[in-house]
């Protein structure tokens, strides 16, 4: 997804990819580029990288938006509970 970000500026808007990154990750899986598990890990890695740059400046509305995004990715998608990529690959074999 990093290459896609460089080509299309994915994740560089006001929301820093919070609203478009999961769509991009699903397209990778939908078009057969990666498996669903790999797509999930691409998403988590991408979001963690984007958060590195904006985390130090959270305040006011930005902090509320970050909490909302955290709730979406952790509460609804369970991003921190994903199995490791290695263990998921072993189960498929």
Structural account:
Keywords: Oxidoreductase. Its EC number is 1.1.5.3. This is sn-glycerol-3-phosphate dehydrogenase subunit A. One of its GO terms (molecular function) is glycerol-3-phosphate dehydrogenase (quinone) activity. The protein is mostly helical and 93 residues long. The protein has one domain (2-92). It has 5 helices and no strands.
> Strand portion, in percent?
under 5%
Number of domains: 1
Helix amount: 55-70%
Report the total helices. Answer: 5
Distance between the termini: 25 Å
| Low-confidence blocks of residues | none
How confident is the prediction overall: mean pLDDT?
Answer: 77
Order of helices and strands: HHHHH
* Assembly form of the protein: single chain
Question: Strand tally, please?
Answer: 0
Report the C-alpha radius of gyration, rounded. Answer: 14 Å
3D shape: globular
- Structural class estimated from helices and strands: mainly alpha
Largest sheet: none
């Amino acid at each position: 997804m990093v290459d896609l970000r460089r080509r299309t500026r994915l994740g560089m808007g006001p929301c820093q990819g919070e609203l478009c990154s999961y769509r991009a990750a699903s397209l990778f899986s939908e078009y057969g580029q990666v498996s669903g598990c790999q797509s999930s890990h691409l998403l988590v890695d991408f979001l963690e990288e984007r958060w590195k740059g904006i985390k130090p400046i959270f305040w006011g509305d930005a902090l509320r938006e970050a909490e909302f995004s955290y709730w979406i990715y952790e509460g609804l998608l369970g991003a921190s509970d994903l199995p490791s990529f290695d263990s998921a690959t072993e189960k498929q074999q």
